[in-house]
Amino acid sequence: MPTELFRVAVVGAGETGTPLLRKLLDAPFVEVAGVADLDPDVAGMRLARERGVRTTTNLMDLAGMGEALDVLIDVTGVPAVRESLRKAMQDTGNHHTVIVHEVVVQLMLSLLHGDLVQLKHDTTDY
Q1: pLDDT, tens digit, for every residue of 19-29?
Q2: pTM across the whole model
Q3: CATH H superfamily, domain 6-76+93-125
Q4: Could you tell me if 6 and 29 are in contact, meaning their C-beta atoms sit under 8 angstroms apart?
Q5: Residue 33 forms beta bridges with which residues?
Q6: How far is CA 1 from the centre of its chain?
């Protein structure tokens, strides 16, 4: 079923998350429902607050939004975060929200840029 508005949240608002967040915030077909990072003062968290987007230092606040999210993007580069998000989706029976990880983000940003975009985190864990 086609979507006219993607409801998205981002986990990780640092060097990788901030450029992605800028693109998401500027897209008229995206509603950014929330941003999580352990550091409330990192650039992406400040940007989100400036744009009126919900921010949190607890990624489970975003995972807990359930089917109100279409896409939950994890750009932390931390395998334990990936696993905790998967577990949260399984535990709550959320079969709607898609979890997108850093490798997919790198691919999408590279396609938009027209050249390979290097991310801060090592993606070999994926």
Answers
A1: 899 999 999 99
A2: 0.89
A3: NAD(P)-binding Rossmann-like Domain (3.40.50.720)
A4: yes
A5: none
A6: 22
